Amino acid sequence: MRSGRAPTLEDVARVAGVSRATVSRVINGIRNVDPQLHEVVWDAVGQTGYVPNRLARSLVTRRTGTVALVVSDSEAHDDDPFMSRFFADPYFGRVVGGLMSVLRREGVQLALQIVGTDDAKKRLVGDLRSGQADGAVVLSLPAVDPLPRMLTDGGIPAVLIGRPADPVPIDYVDLANDTGAALAAEHLLARGCRRIGMISGPADVPASLDRISGFRRAMARHGHGWFPTASGNFTQDSGEAAMRALLAQDPALDGVFVANDLMALGALLALRSTPQSVPDDIAVVGFDDSSAATAAAPPLTTIRHPLEDMAAEAARLLLARVEDPAMQVSSVIYEPSLVRRTSA
Amino acid sequence: MRSGRAPTLEDVARVAGVSRATVSRVINGIRNVDPQLHEVVWDAVGQTGYVPNRLARSLVTRRTGTVALVVSDSEAHDDDPFMSRFFADPYFGRVVGGLMSVLRREGVQLALQIVGTDDAKKRLVGDLRSGQADGAVVLSLPAVDPLPRMLTDGGIPAVLIGRPADPVPIDYVDLANDTGAALAAEHLLARGCRRIGMISGPADVPASLDRISGFRRAMARHGHGWFPTASGNFTQDSGEAAMRALLAQDPALDGVFVANDLMALGALLALRSTPQSVPDDIAVVGFDDSSAATAAAPPLTTIRHPLEDMAAEAARLLLARVEDPAMQVSSVIYEPSLVRRTSA
DNA sequence: CTTTCGTTGGAGAGCGCTTTCCGAGTCTGC
DNA sequence: GCAGACTCGGAAAGCGCTCTCCAACGAAAG
């Protein structure tokens, strides 16, 4: 097969016997080109196996047809295995899947970027500003993250998945985490549970915070101003430990809301080595409706989190903002729903 | 903050009072520059907030600092939800995590590409040839895929994860799937199982094929030339169905090897509604040691598949080939191991 | 004091593409 | 039959960068 240098516009022009400009016009479907030549040019393209060089094109058009998926981490994790845990989590894949479902049919590519240090974030913004990508979808993990602000200051089209920790005029999609947690509380209460505990996530990231406050509010509304709590870091192991801690606080617990499915899996595991059975003695409600939920034994009653849809919406929002940078800043909040399975 | 046009080399040169060439030399750390000027230039860089334009740089250096992660699918799936299932699977995330663990510290970026149709594959090769990325890591899903050959023909540095279906002179990393399956067979046999069945994956993809043949061979070696089989498509649901089918063939089964953990989860689910208990009446061995294995009830005995390590090795291999395209084609095969948990 | 060499920095070409600007044709309408 | 309006295609100027080539200069050598 043809090897060596890839054919350029110039080559096609030579073969077709026209100028570079004309070939460019034909390729980009610009009017003002004689149908005759049109055909001649396409023939030449076929003959030479020409493929436009995206780099060169982007350099002049200032459009890359690429968006970045930025995973913004904190400095602290820079070299620990946290990241690999993050990728193994279904969360990441669901986001990518959702994004790709819309980007793909627009012919837009996704470039993955991981930034930990502030320095890396600065570099990222610089790269983005110089046209490395048309925009960014941001997954901001740390509790407090300068990146969203940097992005807006730099004038970079960007959409967050999950609300920013501090108010920044930036587009985002999020889940009504508080409503979801309230749903869980009400389900547990309606089921007749009287001694309910909660296993929460870290107390500093927005999504986790919202689940805590939503649950707390709903419980208070039903007269449970206080309830035992333990917290984990969204991993299965931490959920298992938290369940034990909770049981130590109140061995007669008859219901527990766990802030994500992975930790709920851990909780279920911990419960398996106690006399209590799920859901008869103690009901368990998870959060996310991830694949772990159906895999669990017993299958987890959980709060559905339409992450794919949210990611898809984020992609759409980003594309729209790229198209019209002056567009009004907007956010779209998804409503969670309760998925009843066996565990509660 | 400074907005509008991003500063260019030209701007820095003007501020520093030197020529573009000199700034370029300083930035790229080329010697032959008076330490005095060196400092002046860096000052100017700081002042202007200059960040080199990667596009422009790549255009001339023919190096992008980006590798593509190509998910090669078949035309058939082009518009069905298969892809989103694929992303939700821990498999994808583990690969990304493994790749990033090495790419990140080399400052190399990952660009995600999904190609279904032959046309898209052709376009991809063209893009790659014209320097869109320095190389590609390929996840080839379909049973028979023209992409690997296209890549080598196009002279694109590429590494497959999982062996190609038909022999192609291309680098790849793979797992000794047959050995893993044999491990499972031997474990089941050593445990005293006499009526063993297998739930396999699709009969046309290499990894699945190897697991089937490895298991079959090991069983034959121990006098079990025939055993009941059912097949699924690597999803939990299909595993559940396959388990029922197997039980219908032989209700007295006392052991089953399931070709991946997700299907094993399904099998466990199916067994929960039968009188048999796992592992006492029937032992179950999975494959992959994915996060699903520990989440299962009972926790799954399974074959460990060091996917992160394999992906990391693929990244290293690719980087090496990019550096030296003439390097000899090589493949590295990882050895699986048995992880004993409770299910067998 | 001239020659030679090594060092340093500038000019400028060129990576492959798009796009503005023009000039050369082609058509109408009077 | 010719001005004016259009259509079409080419020349060429960049996009922001790297890197080769060369001029200039100072120092070392003869």
UniProtKB/TrEMBL annotation, chains A, B:
SMART domains xrefs: HTH_LACI
Q: Which UniProt keywords apply?
A: DNA-binding, Transcription, Transcription regulation
- Enumerate the InterPro entries for this protein: Cro/C1-type_HTH, HTH_LacI, LacI/GalR-like_sensor, Lambda_DNA-bd_dom_sf, Peripla_BP_I
> Superkingdom, according to UniProt?
Bacteria
Q: Which residues form the HTH cro/C1-type domain?
A: 8-37
Secretion signal span = none
Name by which UniProt lists this protein: LacI family transcriptional regulator
Q: Which organism is it from?
A: Paractinoplanes deccanensis
UniProt lineage: Bacteria, Bacillati, Actinomycetota, Actinomycetes, Micromonosporales
